[in-house]
């Protein structure tokens, strides 16, 4: 993880982007997180160390990192924008009930780029894949129809 952090900082410096303490904290949080956080979640985690940090500042930094291709921006079932520091190419399974996002790897999915290029003539530069369904915890909730936690997202 340390190497990824160093490479990210070098990318920012190479692009002439200031490396502020807040930006460093956001990058560290993103690298260490497996939760696919929203800007609000990151803000809540960092505001105790940076009392003047605004949600807008967090969001602007996330947008900058996404524009540089360092993180991935995701819109999922709960309508909030989530962010993911894609250390390795992967996909997401999203629970349509609770909004939980889980990473998974599937190497054969990259064939879709070649198929798309062949069928459309596009010079394909990448793709994004999300699958939707119920996570194991929500499947258990479904077994108990009177449970009030069901349908938190929808």
| Number of beta-strand segments | 5
Q: How much helical structure, as a percent, in the residues?
A: 40-55%
Count of helix runs: 6
- Give the CA-based shape: flat
* Biggest sheet descriptor: 3 strands, mixed
Write the layout of secondary structure elements.
Blueprint: H1 2-14, H2 21-32, H3 39-46, H4 55-67, E1 72-75, E2 81-84, E3 91-95, E4 101-104, H5 111-120, E5 130-133, H6 136-142
Parallel strand pairs: 3-5
Antiparallel strand pairs: 1-2, 3-4
Helix pairs in contact: 1-2, 3-4
Structure description:
- This protein is α+β, with helices and mostly antiparallel strands and 154 residues long.
- It has helices at 2-14, 21-32, 39-46, 55-67, 111-120, 136-142, and strands at residues 72-75, 81-84, 91-95, 101-104, 130-133.
- The strands form 2 sheets. Strands 4-3-5 form a 3-stranded mixed β-sheet, with no helix packed on it. It has a two-stranded antiparallel sheet with strand order 1-2.
- A hairpin with a 5-residue loop joins β1 (72-75) and β2.
- α1 (2-14) packs across α2.
- The longest helix is centred in the N-terminal third of the chain and has 13 residues, at 2-14.
- It starts with a helix and ends in a 12-residue tail after the last helix.
- The model has no long low-confidence stretch (mean pLDDT 86).
Pick out its properties:
154 residues, alpha+beta, 3-stranded mixed beta sheet, two-stranded antiparallel ribbon, 14% strand, flat
Summarize the structure.
This protein is α+β, with helices and mostly antiparallel strands. The chain is 41% helix and 14% strand. Strand 3 (91-95) and strand 4 (101-104) form a beta hairpin.
